[in-house]
# Entry
Amino acid sequence: DTAVSQTPKYLVTQMGNDKSIKCEQNLGHDTMYWYKQDSKKFLKIMFSYNNKELIINETVPNRFSPKSPDKAHLNLHINSLELGDSAVYFCASSLRSGAQETQYFGPGTRLLVL
Amino acid sequence: KQEVTQIPAALSVPEGENLVLNCSFTDSAIYNLQWFRQDPGKGLTSLLLIQSSQREQTSGRLNASLDKSSGRSTLYIAASQPGDSATYLCAPWRRDDKIIFGKGTRLHILP
# Structure
């Protein structure tokens, strides 16, 4: 059984388009995250939601808007895509928020903006 | 601002050898530190989580140590196997619950 799943796995799109990436976890966790891994493999946290409420919002452009319809889902919508948005986006979840919790990661969504 | 450095960036060793991966961080006021493994094209797998009150954690052939005062952590892998080939990421947690990742060490175990 897949614990944290993301769709799509690959996404190729033109600059200026709007796209969404979906994430679902079946672990019963309260907290979900979005991370961005750039071409240099540097991984950075973008957002964190706990029980559908935003708790971490790093300095991410307003074009990125996370949406959590319920505890098991955290989707990422990106408006007006730019070349620099090309990266691998990872979703993760943990039982609760906080540094003491182990995070479980999804397989990643590889976004290429042309 | 927390900066995380992992040395070496890449490492190739013959199967069966013991090895050490190093991680250093600039802000010692961390809450805890987590080591992850990333296989090519895959997500991250958590290996070990060391609480700030602990100095080390062990899981199977893996042992991670944490020295907050010097801003260092090491991941020791005993009796390496080809299946250990992956990128290993060190990630200290800040006290505001944000996690910062190093760029990782790409490990290749030669059969």
Remarks:
- DSSP finds no helices and eleven strands in chain A.
